Amino acid sequence: MSKNVALAFMLNGRRRDLETPANRILADFLREEAGLLGCKIGCDQAACGACTVLIDGVPSAACTTFLFEVDETEVTTIEGLTPADGSLHPIQQAFLVAGGFQCGFCTPGMVLSAKALLDRVPTPDEATIRDWLASNICRCTGYAMIIDAIKLAAHTYPTRGAR
Amino acid sequence: MMDRHVGEALRSETVLALDGPAKVTGTARYTFDLAFPGMLHAKILRSPHAHARIRRIDTARAEALPGVVCVVTGADAARLPDPTYGVFIRDQPVLAIDKVRHVGDSVAAVAAIDEATAFRALALIEVEYEVLPALMDPEDALAVGAPLLFETPSPGIAVPVGAGSTSAKEPRPNVLCEYRYRRGDVDAALAAAAHVFTDTFRFSRINHFLLEPYVNVARIEGGKVELWSCNQDPFIVRNDIARIFGLAPHRVRVHTTFVGGGFGGKSYCKMEPLAVLLAMRARAPVRLCLSMDEGLLTLTKHAAVLRLTTGVAADGTLLARRSAIRLDGGAYADASTVTAVKVAYRISGAYRWQALDSHAEVVRTTTVPAGSFRGFGGTQASYASESQIDMIARRLGIDPYDFRKRNLLALGEAYAPGDSAMDSDLAAGLDEVATRLGYRGRRSGQGRGMGMAIGLKDAGGTGNHGQALVKIIDSGDVIVCAGTVEIGQGTTTALCRVAAETIGVPLARVAYAAIDTDATPLNNGTHVSDGIAVTGLAVARAAADARAQVLAFAAEQLGCPAGELAFDDGAVLQGNYRHPLRALVARHYGNAGFEFIGKGAVKVAFDKEAPLNSRNFFWLPSWAGAEVEVDLETGRIHVHRLVVGGDAGRVINPLACRGQVEGGGVQAYGQALFEELRYAGEDPENAAPLAYRVPLATDLPDVLDSFVAEHAAGPGPFKAKGLGEGGMLAVAAAIANAVEDATGARVAQIPLTPERVLEALARAADERTSPSLGCAPGPQSPP
Fold it and tell me: How many other C-beta atoms lie within 10 A of the C-beta of residue B285?
């Protein structure tokens, strides 16, 4: 077995202190230990983006990130984006209203990539949106309705200062 | 108060996906997410050889590995009561018995306490192979003296067909099946034609690239098999499991949750029986989840070669077509039998003919099995047919738009003798594309051009049927129970809306029940775009039945004729009085409540006079147009605008309709330009997620423009019909046609890679300097 390492990080706003085998994968930890099943594993090789989570706000493939790598970081999963009162985050609402999903398997990763984008570029143009989405494969929609959802979210998501 | 019936207006309501909140919050649960206490994990040992006899398998070292619970091989499969599966022809064993037939074929499987242990155990299984010659394409397989992929006939039958059609099972060595459709005298018609053109088209092999991997969890309790499956066809799977294991169907229970992408890739039996076999042997729940790499080795769309000979009258009227279509079926039948029927029957496209002779055969090769993929047969047929139609128009100096308009089937005109009438206005869709493209008055040549295409397929299944239950709870809320699986296509929301509209409640008061073959009414599966028309009609009938029961009950309670009552949003209306249903129910049944359970069913009749043995339930057209720029130095195609359209008959779920048209369109766009599962020798060389290229957001055309027409002639509730497969049909031909419009060069093979474009440009340049008589292609302006 792999040697254990100690680490501490923020997961969806709550501090986690733990010891973990050095070869523990972030996606496996999220799904199997933290119960955060919104992190989907599609290709398991950082090709499809379904497992995208935010590490210090940067979209990252949880399937190819060791758990120890998130030491001292803030990790946000789709569950961390969803307001506690059961309502939808403005980006989630925009995906719902614009129909920016079909089977839904890529959707958590898409929504998180969209958040990372809008946090950096509050009103992105079409080309910028396409560039950012190139890290996430959607096999269902043909992307146009996802792009529409992000444009809609750019109008409804509070600007950076207000977040 | 008005009664609401099938065919009436829909209430104005914003329709958002009922499963949307779960999906955007990541709380939607897929088979992938399922876990049980004590659940084991399974992995499959796959063949490194394209074709080999299995001489010996030694599993002793694998079985001895701590954490391994069981190992199964072909010997275990061979002992099953009926160990093979497939559509009409059942040639695929649960695990390879005696032989492997493609790189990636399943040889053995391990169930262990975790995936890592299962992987380690696979490495300890020793297999001795006697390597046999590979049959990498139909030419190899049909060569004189080629080894047989199957030495004995496979169980099953030829696909039953109707008037004008013949169908055969395993007619020749290494040929799985063939289908032929004939009408009129093709020889005479071609002999009398002013022009006859023969062209050959090559269609590529692609994979579904499903984001949720193939995954099944099997559990055996008290002699009952329980299976949680990502399969699109819960009842087909239940019946296959029952047959393979010799169980009564009520001893098999299949649960289906959300499915993370289907497109046909998860239809029909796949590795579900293997999951069950492992669970039986392990005496524990087993999760068999394939990697995406393994998904690429599981199923493809059929590669095909289509040779079309088409005769045209001097005035540009299409007369006759002879088609010879060869599908590469891969190693096992899967759904190839029906694909052969569909590709040949659909090859005549959206046009009127005097005579047809359409032949398709499926050749067995040592490659990944081919099967269902969004419009199967239809995509190959539409690509080849619409390419040739365009080429013929240009050769005759007629604008392809005018040539199509001259020959299109009219609304209400029968597709073929004995078959149903066209229920979409094909010309209207073509005009819509032309308008959106700005096709009229376009300038073509010098690397810029436009092309259009019309795809057409029969849809809704052959002699299909479906059942549904709709329950009205005394609260006025509604539950729809049906077998259509939510694979992202949005049909479950549409079915709920059909119930809502029929009963008279807002959509928010309707839920779609979880699918469980013990409780859910049967349907034939989630394919052939049949959700809204077939199952939808069953739901509409069930909803009307439930509503009638409510009114009959209320009439009895209120002592008045049911005809004086209406049901609206949970209350029974009697003149100006509103009686909450709950109060009426409580008066009679007490506080535990009651459910009014309506039943509905649909059966499309078989009909021997129809070529496919059933008059087609509805026609599924697909219109596409492309504006391209071709770099004449590099051969690279840039698509400025892609227009894709479908006909929903009546739109029930607007966002889903648009999403289906665009999603299918972009899948076809990727296949047209770059996507392909390629073989290098015996190995699928790019069968890995990083190597297999699907469209990304950055690959999109500058403008993706879609439309959903409502021609209001579908057979479903509110005149709706399905359109899910359609987006895929016409796009590849439209782009290839635009490339010819832009360059005068025809690339008769997809994907339209830069290398192929350059070759075609060079060929076209040669032909211009030494024109062959009568059919030199080139950019044409309308006469």
Answer: 23
